Amino acid sequence: MAMSNNFAVIFSVLALVPLCFAASGGGYLYPQYYDHSCPKAQEIVKSVVAKAVAKETRMAASLLRLHFHDCFVKGCDASLLLDSSGSIISEKRANPNRNSARGFEVIDEIKAALEKECPQTVSCADILALAARDSTVLAGGPSWVVPLGRRDSLGASLSGSNNNIPAPNNTLPTIITKFKLQGLDLADLVALSGGHTIGQSRCTSFRQRLYNQTGNGLADSTLEVSFASQLRSRCPRSGGDNNLFPLDLVSPTKFDNYYYKNIMASKGLLNSDQVLFTRNPQTMALVKLYAENSELFMEQFVKSMIKMGNITPLTGVRGEIRKNCRKVNS
């Protein structure tokens, strides 16, 4: 669904509004952070992301997801990007990320280009935030001004990744709690879940809905029957764990509001998607609202992405600017 002219104007105006957010460490995030130290930073990120998405459409969703999975663990500090070394146990080994999180090579390419242009200036955490925005735009979604100035962590948290990131099989109260712990409310939860309008998920992430949702050997009663049958054809009881399925069966590569329309038709792929419509009257109302009004969804998605990007970033003298996003500086 194309944005209306009025909606485009809204985001054009937003792009001109200076955003400044207080952050941990006594510093601030603001869009002009690299205007003097690395003026081509955003252009470089955008160029590499565009090339990666042109090569593989799915990469847009993968890069958006990296930012989400990073911010929910120790804040938006690029801890997710660290490989295991010395005392660091990589978050890539955590259940939500193992054989799932991807796009690290694209981040490496962006970092290499930025190090060549302006050495040890642009943080990996800011690269993740910019890549998420650029990926959304390339998929047909809204643009926004990204507050910048995050620094990179000196460590990772495997337990944080396992415990803090919402899982496909979590109950809605658990998901709500995980968002609340990050300072995110129900509107943020429903809007950010709308990121599932693009991307794919593995059979292993929703198999229980097809065969044994509540331990009674039956499929999830909130899953549309013909859709469930279609899914079972490529997601058997055993095997096929890594078979991929679109999170939005109508427009899987376009950033739009069909995700919400699918949920209302009982065709949400993940349990964590469908429960937004079946388990809570407030989230149900928001699903209906965003299904009916694409502009409102996009507007809230932008607000929630900026809010999520401001989860306890490191600023000032805290952390560092990594030379290589996969390891701390020596």
UniProtKB/TrEMBL annotation:
GO BP, sorted A to Z: hydrogen peroxide catabolic process; response to oxidative stress
Protein name (Swiss-Prot/TrEMBL): Peroxidase
Main function: Removal of H(2)O(2), oxidation of toxic reductants, biosynthesis and degradation of lignin, suberization, auxin catabolism, response to environmental stresses such as wounding, pathogen attack and oxidative stress.
Residue numbers binding heme b: 196
Protein's cellular compartments: Secreted
SUPFAM superfamilies in the record: Heme-dependent peroxidases (SSF48113)
Domain Plant heme peroxidase family profile: 28-329
Cystine pairings recorded for this chain: 38-118, 71-76, 124-325, 203-235
UniProt entry tagged with the keyword Transcription: no
Gene Ontology molecular function: heme binding; lactoperoxidase activity; metal ion binding
Residues reported to bind Ca(2+) 1: 70, 73, 75, 77, 79, 91
UniProt-annotated catalytic positions: 69
A Gene Ontology term for the protein's cellular component: extracellular region
Species this chain originates from: Elaeis guineensis var. tenera (Oil palm)
Site entry (Transition state stabilizer), positions: 65
Cofactor names: Ca(2+); heme b
Keyword Disulfide bond in annotation: yes
